[in-house]
Amino acid sequence: MNNTFYTENITKDSLARMIDHTLLRSDAKTDEIKQLCKEAATFHFASVCVNPYFVPLAKKFLEELNASVKICTVIGFPLGATSSIAKAAEAFDSVKNGADEIDMVINICAALENRFDYVERDIGSVKKMIEIAAGEVNRNVILKVILETCFLNDKTIEACCHSAVIAGADFVKTSTGFATPKDSNGKPLFNGAQARHVSLMRAAVGDKIGVKASGGIRTTEDALTMIRSGASRIGTSSGVKIISEL
Q1: Which of 78, 91, 181, 205 could bond to 150 as cystine, CB 3.0-4.6 Å?
Q2: Known catalytic membership, residue 93
Q3: Does the pTM of the predicted model rise above 0.70?
Q4: Is 212 designated active site?
């Protein structure tokens, strides 16, 4: 996928429509979620990305603002280590509460141990329940799959991308932004999106599905670098700053 067009001809509006305006802190409060929604409506971001607890609030508030902004939420977040049944139930409930987009974390242990059949089934179980819930509310809902690339080598990233495609995901996504990778001496390592991982993911999925870069994207140049590398969606808590810099 060649994204040269986006970086040479991008406008504030076109970039904004690629951004999931994100607030996933555990101590986030109601007023902060409302502010997030106001900013998303003002700048025409693709979505607000909030924890499941805040999905009903975001839905109600965005409707009051008459905003054409999607609601994204996270499932099995941030560890990905809950059971497939729990993830599927959480996704079902979130869609019924108003979520338009589901970002689920894969089972990272299964990926590290090369049990990609489990990774595929885990994603597939969530996809199935999303489809059931979406049918009940008569709304299209998309699934993004978070790989947590900071823990994975290139071969494993590629295999997880293939599993996501087979399971019916609509996007693969780099990171939660909450991981805590360390080197052999215990030194913290970067836990967010890297351009080379985005390129690898895009090559693995081709044009079949989207690629979302998330984690540590704080400037316009950060966002454009990810887009040049193949990202079609950007997850960031710095959306207003990124658009204002363009």
Answers
A1: 181
A2: no
A3: yes
A4: yes
